Amino acid sequence: MRRQGFAVLCAVVLASCGGDPVATSQMQITTIDIFDFYYSPTSRTVRAGTTIEWVNRGPSAHTATSDDGVWDSGSIAPPSSGGGGTPPPPGTPPPPNPYARGLYAVGTTFSTALNTPGVYGFHCSLHPPATNPSFVGTITVTE
Ligand SMILES: [Cu+2]
Fold this sequence. Notes:
By secondary structure, the chain is mainly β. The chain has one helix and nine strands; from the N terminus they run αβββββββββ. Strand 2 (28-35) and strand 3 form a beta hairpin. The longest helix is centred in the N-terminal third of the chain and has 16 residues, at 2-17.
C-alpha cells in the first residue's frame, strides 16, 4: 500500500514536471530523449541515486542498453502517433520541460535508477554502434 502510494507520487511528478532534473525529497529524475538515430543529450552527469528516464520520440522503436550489461530497456516503442515534429539536431540542449513543450510526440519511456558512481555507456541494441556509431550515450554518476 505504502509502496503503491510512492509509485503514484512518482508518476504524478513525472507527468506534471517532466523536466530535468526534477528534485523531490524522494527522488531525482533526468530525461534523455531518443530520436532516429541519436540520444539527446548524448551525455549526462547526475548524482548517485538519480533515475534516468529515456523517452522515445520516434518514429522507430529503440532501446537504451547499458554497454556493460548494467541495464537493458528492451524495445521502447515510438509514439503511437508515429512521432511528430522536427527533432532537434544532435547536441541540442534538452528543453526545460519536454512534457509540456508540445514540440515532439512523447512515446514510451524506460527508467532506471543509477546508485553507484561511475561512467555508464549505453547504446541501442536494435541499431548498434557498429552500424550507427553516433547513436550512443554516456551517463556519469557522481557521489
Ligand atoms: Cu534504435
